[in-house]
Amino acid sequence: xxxxxxxxxxxxxxxxxxxxxxxxxxxxxxxxxxxxxxxxxxxxxxxxxxxxxxxxxxxxxxxxxxxxxxxxxxxxxxxxxxxxxxxxxxxxxxxxxxxxxxxxxxxxxxxxxxxxxxxxxxxxxxxxxxxxxxxxxxxxxxxxxxxxxxxxxxxxxxxxxxxxxxxxxxxxxxxxxxxxxxxxxxxxxxxxxxxxxxxxxxxxxxxxxxxxxxxxxxxxxxxxxxxxxxxxxxxxxxxxxxxxxxxxxxxxxxxxxxxxxxxxxxxxxxxxxxxxxxxxxxxxxxxxxxxxxxxxxxxxxxxxxxxxxxxxxxxxxxxxxxxxxxxxxx
Amino acid sequence: xxxxxxxxxxxxxxxxxxxxxxxxxxxxxxxxxxxxxxxxxxxxxxxxxxxxxxxxxxxxxxxxxxxxxxxxxxxxxxxxxxxxxxxxxxxxxxxxxxxxxxxxxxxxxxxxxxxxxxxxxxxxxxxxxxxxxxxxxxxxxxxxxxxxxxxxxxxxxxxxxxxxxxxxxxxxxxxxxxxxxxxxxxxxxxxxxxxxxxxxxxxxxxxxxxxxxxxxxxxxxxxxxxxxxxxxxxxxxxxxxxxxxxxxxxx
Lengths: 330, 251
Ligand SMILES: [Fe+2]
Ligand SMILES: [Fe+2]
Ligand SMILES: [Fe+2]
Known about the structure:
Chain A: InterPro entries: Aromatic_CoA_ox/epox, Ferritin-like, Ferritin-like_SF, PaaA, PaaA_PaaC. The complex is a heterodimer. By secondary structure, chain A is mainly α.
């Protein structure tokens, strides 16, 4: 997902009996569906884990601006340009909400940004894939935002208050993102031969990377078990992936497009689709920095940050001058 | 009458189209997240204004074209925007200086157009003026903040105003199209906006501790379409490429 491969304490989940009174009260509150707020006591592992998860999610929103930003100046109509720009602007806003949520845990946005720029912190693997045709704007909205929604809707109930509230705001906008993507896909799939070909090609390239967004199977993972006990992860990766495939396969059929998986089939008994796993070796390569666009994405973020330094410094210097002038006048 | 009116509406629409496009080039790479969001707001407003002005232009022309046809299927010589707005972004400082120099004129222009004898023009102007009031507020603040910031930001802002000043004068020049608009009470005399503009610029540059360039030489040829800069053609190759490569497609 937007936060992939987050490691928790790795200790396994403690039972209530094994906990000190503070921790037990904390866990009982979560079990009862209560929210943890910034000033409340929390285990160090919970705090660290959340910082990593929310930070990675925020970075994904920010880096996620780039593949779609790639097409704003080439959007084919004024309306499409406005919709795409508004969508990418929303993603920047999502980044902002999430950095604010992370800051309630005692890190600063600048700290997190530095870790992104140095490559220490990750962002979702999906944004390391290139957007090559206008149909990719459709595929990204439809599949990538679609996959993000799968994960983010349950996170509205996550145990950490500021994170849950950020998710509520974000989810409102995500469904518009997915709809505009699907709308582009409809136009392309039902358009000229060339447009249809672009739509199919976009689906071919984005299908498996979208499945990878959920991360490898974590049914056996101690990290996931802990995160789920803390309710900062609400479903297993496989559950969400299945839900995504079940939702998306009929949509592809409606578009008249073919999902690039010969084994994809509806199981009449279970009502779920069976489908092929993505190439997990490719996934780990992308995480290691060897995706098609990792270098470009980090370069672009670093360039923006470096070239913006004088602006940030200038505005801070001005604000300070204003403050001291005001103090001198008083 | 319909030809000069069409020209005039293209001037308004093309300014918004070309500047909106330039500003949208910043998407995802601004100096801070808040600026990214604010720049996108400005670009979105300008794209919306483009749809209104060029939509009305197409209607007035009456040849079955629409705003998209005008935006994506005209070549450089048919564009009627000011040379100022087609200037490349440069650094963030130059982008914001360009914005300020344009916004100051744009707001005064729209306020005058709110009294237009043409109701459709007055209505578009009224809606746009609300948006542009905010653009001007923001671009003035940024010019002041960066001019009166660090030594480096001051130097960059001075170089931005020096670089862009030769494109300011064109906003106040008039030709036959303007005469025709004035005669029908549709639009103001461009020269009538100069005094207010000079006061605004003097105030903001003073607060920014920047010097107003002394030489008022003005490049011209954008709003008449006689001679654009080399930059516009490159912008159009990108902006219009998809429409022109697949002319039989709808999007
Ligand atoms: Fe988002
Ligand atoms: Fe997203
Ligand atoms: Fe989104």
